[in-house]
């Protein structure tokens, strides 16, 4: 027997043909379970490891899958990436990770680069590219692909998303139940699918409570934008100001926290869509609608591996739940503002729970 076990060594010891060993290694469902079990046992006993280069030359596909995310600096996608990488490793595959960049051209180049690399499957967060128009060789009849976090418009492929609308509706209803009627909605890139859905859920909860939707309370926050105005200045300085904030993603949540704490406005109720590292350590701790990035990663790669192994069933759209975690910030009652007796003919306003509303700085809190 060779110092390094070969396919031939496995076949001889298991009493089968080299072709049968190859079929077992490639998880061919046509091999009987008894034969497959005997071959796998022999592989384990010999410590045989398939040659990825040889297999790649035979199949025309590399022993790798590609993962395209908007940015790996986002805590949510970093956690998704970690889970996908671990599952790929367990399946004997390499993971190639790429960021989509900031333009359709950059995203196209990344995806085409992975396809030219002959990956055997893709997991993609669609960011800028119109995948239906691109006519890429992906999905049914092409390279297996699973889209996560947001569906590609006009393309029938496997997709794993979060219950964005239902979760935002629940979070908004929670604030309404604690007495709030002036609830601000803050999010980065509201035109994107997840945030559009969350904004829709927010609006639905207001409508269910008989509260009129006020566009002045919606803050479309571009984190990278330059400017001197603090994030929440507009909604907190209205004649009828916001008493609560729903942040639509973790990126916006961090800036909401900086603003509220920088202005000493911890009297404003706050719920974050998605958790973030310091949420539990703040005072008050932040109430969250927590996504599960590990669940999204596992669900996506499990679905992708089934496709790689030959599952030809109809594309699926899987919707994952969130977990609502009450920690304190979302349970703050609104500050009631009452008219005081006129002073020298001039009406004043006073708070019933505290002496004064601290003013916010006019400089950025980022």
Can you offer a commentary on this structure?
- The protein folds into three domains: 7-50, Orthogonal Bundle (434 Repressor (Amino-terminal Domain)), CATH 1.10.260.40; 60-156 and 293-322, Rossmann fold; 164-286 and 327-336, Response regulator (Rossmann fold), CATH 3.40.50.2300.
- 37% of the residues lie in helices and 16% in strands.
- The protein has helices at residues 7-14, 18-25, 33-46, 52-59, 75-90, 104-116, 131-134, 164-177, 193-208, 233-236, 250-262, 293-308, and strands at residues 64-69, 94-99, 121-124, 145-148, 158-162, 183-187, 218-220, 244-247, 269-273, 287-290, 317-320, 323-325, 337-339, 349-351.
- It has a six-stranded parallel beta sheet, with helices on both faces. Strands 7-6-8-9-10-12 form a six-stranded mixed beta sheet. The chain has a two-stranded antiparallel ribbon with strand order 13-14.
- Mean pLDDT is 85; it is low at 223-228, 338-357 and 361-366.
């Amino acid at each position: 027997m060779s110092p390094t076990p070969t396919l031939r060594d496995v076949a001889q010891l298991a009493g089968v043909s080299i072709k049968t060993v190859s079929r077992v290694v490639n998880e061919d469902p046509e091999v009987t379970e008894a034969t497959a079990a005997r071959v796998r046992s022999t592989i384990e006993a010999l410590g045989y490891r398939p040659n990825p280069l040889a297999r790649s030359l035979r199949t025309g596909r590399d022993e790798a899958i590609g993962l395209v995310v908007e940015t790996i600096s986002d805590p949510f996608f970093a956690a998704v990436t970690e889970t996908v990488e671990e599952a790929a490793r367990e399946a004997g595959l390499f993971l190639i990770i790429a960021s989509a960049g900031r333009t359709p051209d950059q995203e196209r180049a990344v995806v085409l680069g992975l396809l030219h690399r002959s990956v055997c499957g893709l997991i993609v967060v669609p960011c800028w590219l119109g995948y239906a128009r691109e006519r890429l060789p992906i999905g049914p009849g092409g390279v297996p692909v699973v889209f996560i976090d947001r569906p590609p418009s006009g393309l029938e492929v496997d997709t794993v998303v979060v219950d964005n609308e239902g979760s935002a509706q629940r979070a908004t209803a929670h604030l309404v139940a604690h007495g709030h009627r002036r609830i601000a909605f803050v999010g980065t890139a509201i035109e994107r699918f997840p945030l559009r859905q969350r904004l829709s859920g927010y609006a639905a909860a207001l409508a269910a409570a008989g509260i009129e939707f006020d566009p002045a309370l919606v803050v479309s926050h571009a984190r990278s934008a330059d400017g001197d105005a603090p994030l929440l200045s507009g909604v907190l300085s209205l004649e009828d100001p916001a008493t609560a904030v729903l942040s639509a993603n973790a990126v916006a949540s961090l800036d909401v926290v900086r603003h509220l704490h920088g202005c000493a406005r911890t009297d404003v109720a706050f719920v974050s869509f998605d958790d973030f590292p310091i949420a539990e350590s703040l005072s008050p701790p932040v109430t969250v609608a927590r996504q599960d990035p590990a669940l999204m990663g596992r669900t996506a790669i499990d679905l992708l591996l089934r496709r790689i192994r030959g599952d030809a069933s109809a594309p699926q759209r899987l919707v994952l739940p969130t977990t609502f975690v009450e920690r304190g910030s979302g349970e703050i009652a609104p500050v009631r503002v009452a008219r005081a007796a006129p002073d020298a003919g001039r009406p004043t306003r006073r708070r019933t729970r505290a002496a004064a509303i601290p003013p916010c700085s006019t400089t950025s809190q980022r």
